[in-house]
């Protein structure tokens, strides 16, 4: 299960990023973190930008609603998303994980 924390005005969740993958996709769950594969390399913040783009497209939110709260130079990140509730995010992720299997 993914640990989603409600924050003031949004949510935060842990993400484990695998850069330089063949395609952008959610690939599972590991230690309460969402595993995310991205084609972007981990150079000059490109993977961080790809994480923000991925969640913005996935949740149909503006890029400004998504920030990397921790782990800017690590594969393990904390992503903060404003303008969405924990239950809505959890429901959307459950749907996506069910469709990917």
Automatic annotation (TrEMBL):
SUPFAM superfamilies: YggU-like
Pfam families hit by this protein: DUF167
Record-linked Gene3D superfamilies: YggU-like
Family to which the UniProt record says this protein belongs: Belongs to the UPF0235 family.
Gene Ontology CC terms: cytoplasm
Full protein name: UPF0235 protein HYX28_10665
Superkingdom of the source species: Bacteria
InterPro entries: DUF167 (IPR003746), YggU-like_sf (IPR036591)
């Amino acid at each position: 299960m993914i640990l989603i924390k409600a924050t003031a005005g949004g949510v935060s969740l842990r993400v484990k990023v695998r850069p330089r993958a063949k395609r952008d996709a959610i690939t599972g769950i590991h230690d309460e973190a969402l595993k995310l594969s991205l084609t972007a390399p981990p150079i000059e913040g490109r993977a961080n930008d790809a994480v923000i783009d991925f969640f913005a497209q996935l949740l149909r939110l503006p890029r400004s609603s998504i920030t990397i709260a921790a782990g800017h130079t690590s594969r393990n990140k904390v992503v903060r998303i404003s303008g969405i509730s924990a239950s809505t995010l959890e429901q959307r992720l459950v749907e996506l994980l069910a469709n990917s299997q």
